[in-house]
Amino acid sequence: MKPAPSMPEPYDLLIVGGGVNGTAIARAAAVAGKRVLLVEQGDLAQGTSSASTKLMHGGLRYLEYHEYKLVREALAERAVMLRTAPHIVWPLEFRLPHMPSMRPWPIVRMGLWLYDLFAWGGGLPRSRGIRLDDPALVQNGGRGFSYWDGWVDDARLVVLNAMDAAEAGAEIRTRTRLESAQRQAEQWTVTLRDATGVHQVAARTIVNAAGPWVEQVLHGRLGQNDSSPIRLVRGSHIVVKRCLAGDHAWLLQQADGRIVFAIPYLDDFTLIGTTEVTVNDPTDTVIAPAEIAYLLDAANRYLRTPLREDAIVGSYGGIRPLVDDGTQAASAVSRDYRLELDRKGAPLLSVFGGKITTARHLAQAALERLGIEGGDTRNRALPGGDIRDFGALLASVRERWPFLDEPVARRMAHAYGSRIDTLLVNARTADDLGTDFGAGLRAREVDYLIRHEWARSADDILWRRTKLGYYLDPAQVERLGHYIRETIA
């Protein structure tokens, strides 16, 4: 009789969830020298982490809810990310028109002063009073404020976390679902399913970072009963044809006490968001007609020429898994995170809440809860982020590859940073980059994304790796999808 096959050596950590929290924890643990496996049932950042407002910010409005600790932590992390990932995180000016019917001038001024104080030493300009100078605004010439925060390519942040984790030794498996797990005293026996079938692995610790699915994983697949209650809140956005000039964003106060952002997006659009609607299903991400109307009304309160629905070129919603603190209004629920460690047998750490800005800090806190030393990524550049001056990098790209159209050169410099060399090495003409699928997306870049960034579909590339989905027509998308299927077959 043949002996039963032995279980492979246990992983130190098995992380469930390929969003920003899961990949940040995988990165920190791998840097600490741990044997890490991360599994994600879809693509990296396929859920909430690619459906954010694209801000790396402290959260000015959180001051109203006295969340001073969260704001200070987030502003400190903003400074870290501006330094370690300057290609995908950069400073963004916000202008805030003052409407006497909203928050009084002294209250806003005091809030901005406190925000400046919490961000002291972060390297961005301080807030100031301004005269509005955009003729598209009803209040052009009126009073307002200027302050600074950060912009982030959210999905690329997740992918770069995963890349750095993999380069430090972690194993990243996308399109892999955790089916079930049996707990013993010292380890978990975990059943995984992917396109090739069912597999079993062992892990000393499980980290449940499944975002909106955290309770489903905890109760349905891990068989655990205790957890913090969470509230699922959909944040929806619309993307419209560019309606405001300049490289700065706008913070628009609303009569209901909320604020809505209007942010320059890509080269041709304005991103407007967000709403906050409580839902029951983590897949309930489609923006509702009432949310569209709310966001249009929010912008039109300030615009001289009102936006209509035909200006909308796209929309998206993300489900935020917030710790339910009993607050009635979804907008007032804390954006802070909670880590729950269960040691009734092999350890299980569950992550509740959190935000993109504080994911790196959350990862450090998770390692501390698990008693893992090392893994400090505060001064560790994300892949492509080992550059001092993005302007100098962009100038170099223009000089070395002059055949790239300006929007393409800028997009690729931002996306890949110093690693653009790996992608464009030996290219002398545009034809060297292969088939053009549209908007400057060529076969060599697609091959790179498949080989290095776990891309497996047109959606992975167009909506998460590059954001070029707004530019390609259906025929181009189908052509790209066919090429990907042929490449990975």
Automatic annotation (TrEMBL):
Q: Which family does it belong to?
A: Belongs to the FAD-dependent glycerol-3-phosphate dehydrogenase family.
According to the UniProt entry, what is the EC number of this protein?
1.1.5.3
Q: Which residues form the FAD dependent oxidoreductase domain?
A: 12-359
Q: Could you tell me which Pfam families the record lists for this protein?
A: DAO, DAO_C
Write down the Gene3D superfamilies for this protein, in alphabetical order. 6.10.250.1890, Alpha-glycerophosphate oxidase, cap domain (1.10.8.870), D-Amino Acid Oxidase, subunit A, domain 2 (3.30.9.10), FAD/NAD(P)-binding domain (3.50.50.60)
Record InterPro entries: DAO_C, DAO_C_sf, FAD-dep_OxRdtase, FAD/NAD-bd_sf, G3P_DH_FAD-dep
* Species, as recorded: Sphingobium terrigena
Q: What class of enzyme is it?
A: oxidoreductase
Q: State the protein's name.
A: Glycerol-3-phosphate dehydrogenase
